[in-house]
Specification:
Layout (H helix, E strand, L loop, with lengths): L2 H24 L6 H11 L3 H21 L1 H6 L2 H25 L2 H30 L4 H29 L2 H20 L9 H8 L15 H5 L2 H32 L3 H29 L1 H18 L6 H30 L4 H8 L1 H21 L5 H27 L3
Helix pairs in contact: 1-6, 1-7, 1-8, 3-6, 3-15, 3-16, 5-6, 5-8, 6-7, 6-15, 7-8, 7-12, 7-14, 11-12, 11-14, 11-16, 11-17, 12-13, 12-14, 13-14, 13-17
C-alpha cells in the first residue's frame, strides 16, 4: 500500500479524532449555565454579572476568529492548537483564582478575554485543517469537529455540577483547566496540514472525478470578503444562528407558557436540546456532501419556517419538543456546513481567514439575539408572537440564498 493510501485511510481520521478532542474541550463553554448558581453563592456577584462572563467569551471568540484567520493560515496548525490550549487552560485557572478572591474584573479577564481567545483559535484551526484533509467530504469533516463542540456541554455539565459540590468552585476551575489543557495539547500534537497537492492526488488514487476549482480560487482574502457572495453567506449564517440561539435562550419558559410543562420537564428538554444540536452537526453536514450545500441550506430554512410557524399552536408537550429538537438540528447543522460552503465557493487556501470573519456572525447573533428577544417578550408580555417572528427572519434567509445563487457568477468576475 502506498504512502498516500496510508494517509488517505488512516492518518486523516486520526487528525479528525484530534479535532474532536479539541472541540469537546472548548465546547464546555455551552455548559456555562451550570456555573451561575455556584458562582453567585460563593462570590455574591449578581446573576447578570455572572452571565456577562459567557457573553464576553462568545464575543472574544468571534473577534479572535475574525482577526487571527491569516495568522492561522500562515502558521502550522499544531502551533495554533497548542496556543489555543494554553489560552483556554490559563483562562479557566485565572477564573478560579478570581472567583476565590471575589475579583470580578479578573474573572472577566480570565473567562471572557483569555478564555474567549482560546475558544476562537481552538474553534477555527481544527476545522480549517480538516477541510484540507477531506476534499471529498468537506461537510462530514466540518461536522465531525463541530459535533464535538455541540457535545462538549453534555460532558461538562454533569462534571461541573458534581465537582463544585465536592471540591468547590475555584478548585473545579483549576481541575477543568488542567484537564482541558491536557486533552487539547495532546490532540494538537496530531494536527498537521496535508501536502500541497493532496486534493489532486486524492482524486487520482481514490478514482473519483477531479474536484472542481472554485471561481475565486486565486482571489485575495480582502477581495473575497467584499464580494456579494461572501456577504450573503454571512447574512444567512447570522440569521440561522440568531433564530437558533434566541430559541435556546427562551426554550424553557416558552415551553412552560405554551404547553404547561413543569419546570423540571422543561429543564430536561433543554438538556436534550444539546444532544440534537450535536447530532444535527454531523447529520446535516454528511447529508450536504450528497445533496449539495445550497440544497441543505434550503432545507434548513424551510424546515425551520414550518417548525417555528407551528410552535405557538403545539400545546401538546411531546409535539412541542419534537419541533424544538428539529430546529436545533438545523441550528447545529448551520455551524457544520458553513465552512464547507466556504470551501466550495472560495477554496481552502484562505479558509481560516474567511471562516474566522464568518464567525463574527455568531458573536453578533449571540449578543443581539437574547437581548432583542428579552425586550420583545417584556413589550408583548407573551412568547406567542416570537416563533412567527423567527419564521419571518428565516424567510429572509431564503431570499439571501436566492441572491447568492444569482450573484455568484457576477460576484467573482472582478476578483
Amino acid at each position: 500500500m502506498s504512502h498516500f493510501k496510508n494517509h488517505s485511510k488512516h492518518h486523516r481520521w486520526i487528525i479528525a479524532a484530534a479535532a474532536v478532542g479539541i472541540h469537546l474541550s472548548i465546547g464546555s463553554v455551552y455548559a456555562y449555565s451550570v456555573w451561575k448558581i455556584p458562582l453567585t453563592t460563593l462570590t455574591g456577584w449578581s446573576e447578570a454579572q455572572v452571565a456577562l462572563g459567557f457573553s464576553l467569551a462568545i464575543l472574544f471568540l468571534g473577534i479572535t476568529a475574525a482577526f487571527s484567520g491569516r495568522f492561522i493560515d500562515r502558521r502550522h496548525p499544531r502551533a495554533n492548537c497548542l496556543l489555543a490550549a494554553a489560552l483556554f487552560g490559563i483562562g479557566l485557572v485565572l477564573s478560579g483564582v478570581s472567583a476565590h478572591v471575589g475579583f470580578l474584573p479578573g474573572y472577566y479577564l480570565g473567562y471572557g478575554l483569555i478564555g474567549g481567545m482560546g475558544l476562537g483559535l481552538g474553534y477555527v484551526a481544527p476545522v480549517s485543517t480538516l477541510l484540507r484533509w477531506f476534499p471529498d467530504r468537506r461537510g462530514l469533516a466540518a461536522g465531525l469537529a463541530t459535533m464535538g463542540f455541540g457535545f462538549g456541554a453534555m460532558l461538562a455539565g454533569p462534571l461541573i455540577s458534581r465537582q463544585t459540590q465536592i471540591l468547590g468552585v475555584p478548585e473545579t476551575f483549576y481541575l477543568l483547566g488542567g484537564i482541558y489543557f491536557t486533552v487539547m495539547a495532546l490532540s494538537s500534537l496530531w494536527m498537521k496540514n496535508p501536502p500541497a497537492d493532496w486534493a489532486e492526488r486524492f482524486s487520482v488514487e481514490a478514482k473519483i472525478p477531479p474536484l472542481p476549482s472554485p471561481p475565486a480560487l486565486d482571489a485575495l482574502p480582502g477581495q473575497i470578503l467584499r464580494s456579494p457572495a461572501y456577504l450573503l453567506l454571512w447574512f444567512m449564517f447570522f440569521l440561522n444562528i440568531l433564530c437558533g440561539i434566541a430559541l435556546i435562550s427562551i426554550a424553557s419558559p416558552m415551553a412552560m407558557e405554551i404547553t404547561g410543562m413543569s419546570p423540571k420537564s422543561a429543564a430536561t428538554m433543554v438538556g436534550i436540546m444539546g444532544l440534537f444540536n450535536g447530532l444535527g452537526r454531523i447529520g446535516w453536514s454528511a447529508a450536504s456532501d450528497r445533496i449539495g450545500r445550497k440544497q441543505t441550506w434550503v432545507c434548513f430554512f424551510l424546515v425551520q419556517i414550518v417548525a417555528f410557524g407551528l410552535l405557538p399552536g403545539l400545546t401538546n408537550p411531546l409535539a412541542f419538543q419534537l419541533a424544538v429538537f428539529v430546529i436545533l438540528t438545523c441550528y447545529g447543522g448551520g455551524f457544520a456546513t458553513a465552512p464547507a460552503f466556504l470551501g466550495d465557493l472560495f477554496g481552502a487556501r484562505h479558509l481560516s481567514t474567511l471562516y474566522g470573519v464568518l464567525l463574527t456572525a455568531w458573536a453578533a447573533a449571540g449578543l443581539l439575539g437574547p437581548l432583542f428577544i428579552a425586550w420583545l417578550r417584556d413589550w408583548s408580555g407573551s412568547y406567542q408572537m416570537l416563533p412567527p417572528l423567527f419564521a419571518g427572519f428565516l424567510f429572509m434567509g431564503i431570499l439571501g440564498l436566492w441572491g447568492l445563487s444569482h450573484t455568484r457568477k457576477g460576484s467573482f468576475e472582478n476578483l
